[in-house]
Structure formats: structure tokens, C-alpha cells
Amino acid sequence: MCIRDRLFFEKVIVISVVSSLLHECGHIAAMRASGVTIKEIRFYGGGMKIIGDLSCLPFSKELFVTFAGVLVNFCLCLLSYCFFKTIFSVNLAILIFNLLPIGCLDGARALELISDKYPRIKPLLVTVKTIFCALLLCLCFYSFMRLKISISVFVTVLFLTVGEIVYMRKK
User: Fold this and answer.
1) Dihedral class, residue 157 (left if φ above 0, else alpha if ψ from -120 to 50, else beta)
2) What's the whole-number average pLDDT of the chain?
């Protein structure tokens, strides 16, 4: 790896960490603005978990808190689009990744909130999540075998998919 590639890689890592922290700060700010007391912040293999009692919030505010991190990444995309392509690309990736309807991601949480509010669509959402997980796992496996994607992408998708299967079996 040449020096220029190494510096670019290091820049992407720093931007990813900063953007991920700003994403989580978006959730924290939305929780604080909604009057939620933050009880604990945990770091784990999947990222960061912010623990607070959201059950007292109305549906709209809970949905706002859920999407606040993605909103931060969207704003960073808008601000960086013209001049900072790397920042734009990293934030777009974080935004799309967090909207996936699996695991502990924001997209899954939003679907859970919607299905709690409208219980008649819950079976449909479970089916959509199951099909999505299966397709994502197949696509990732195919990409790993044929396109030689990074093993870390494969392991991340596997981690999320297995986590989703375990979570769905508990419910």
C-alpha cells in the first residue's frame, strides 16, 4: 500500500469515527430535547447504545429520537456534497446502513415503533424483515465469493443477520 492510499484510508477511518459519534450525539440531543433522562451510554461490538426511558414519549417524539442520528448524517451529507466527497460518502454510507431494517439499527427501531402503533401490519413487517435479512445475507455471501469484498463487511452482515434471527425468536 502506497503512502497516499494509507493516508486516504486513515482519513476515512477518522471521518467514520467522528461521523458515527455525531450520529449518536444526534440521538442524545433529541432525547434531551424531548425531556428524556439518559441513564447510561454503552459501547459494544455493534456501536453505541444509549439507554433512556422513551416509553413516556408520544409516538412522534419517539420516532424523532429514532431518526435523529440519521438526520445528522443527512445534514453532514448536504453540507459536504460539493467540496468534501469523502465526508459525503462516509456519511451517506452511515445513513443508509442505519436505515436497514435489521438488528439494533435505526431502521429496525422505526419499523418496531410503527408496528406497535399499527399492530395489524406487524406480520407484514416481520415478513419484510425476514426476506430482507435473507436477501442481504445471500448478496453478501455472493459478493464475498465472487467480488472479493472485505471479510469485515461479510462478518458485519452475518453479525446483524444472526442478531436479528435471535431477536425475532425471542419475540
Assistant:
1) alpha
2) 80
